[in-house]
Amino acid sequence: MALDKNQIAKRIAQEVKNGMYVNLGIGIPTLVANYIPHGIEVVLQSENGLLGMGPFPTEDKVDADLINAGKQTITTLPGSSIFSSADSFGMIRGEHVDLTILGAMEVSEDGDIANWKIPGKMVKGMGGAMDLVASAKNIIVAMQHTARDGSSKLLKECTLPITGLKCVKKIVTDLAVLEVTDKGFKLLERAPGVTVEDIQKATEGTLIVEGEIPEVQL
Question: How many CA atoms lie within 13 A of 163 on its CB side?
C-alpha cells in the first residue's frame, strides 16, 4: 500500500505551519497547495513571480495567464501579488522563504540532493533549484523511494549531478517519512501496510530504526 502522489503531498502538507512562506517545486510538491490544513494560513510562493497561490483551478476557473513555475494553471488568493522573476529570486536568495518543498531524483544520507539532470538526457537547465536549496531555511523532498528498475534513490552518496549539499531536512516517499540526521536516514513513519523490512530493502543509505514505527496518518 505505497502512497500515491496525492497522498505524499497530503502528508507533506502536515509539515506546513501557520504563517510560513512556502515555495512549491515542480511535480508532486505543487499538489501540496490542495491539502493545506483548514485554519492554517500560509503564503505559497512560485519562483516565476507569485505570492499567494491557491489550490489548482476547476475547469471553469482556469486562467491561462496564471501559471506556476511548472507552467500549470493555478488560482490566486485574496491579497496575492504578481511580480518579476528577479524580485522572486531576490526573495529566495534573501532567505525570506521558510520552507521549500522539492522533488528529487536522488538524496544522500548526508542530505545532498540531485534533482536537475540525468547525464545523456535532454534537460532545460537547473532553473531555480540551486538558489532554493542554498537559501531556504527548511527543505522537504517529495519523491519515489526507488527507481523504475527497483534501485534505491536514497543513497549513501548521490551518483547524479548535485544540486545542493547537506541541505535536505526531511523526505516523504511512497514508502516512508524520513528525517536526515548526521548518522543517516531516521525512519519516522511508514506507509500503511509497508514493513520496516520493505523500507530497509529499498534504502541503500544508512537507515536508523528506533522503536515501533507508526503508519502514516492522512
Answer: 29
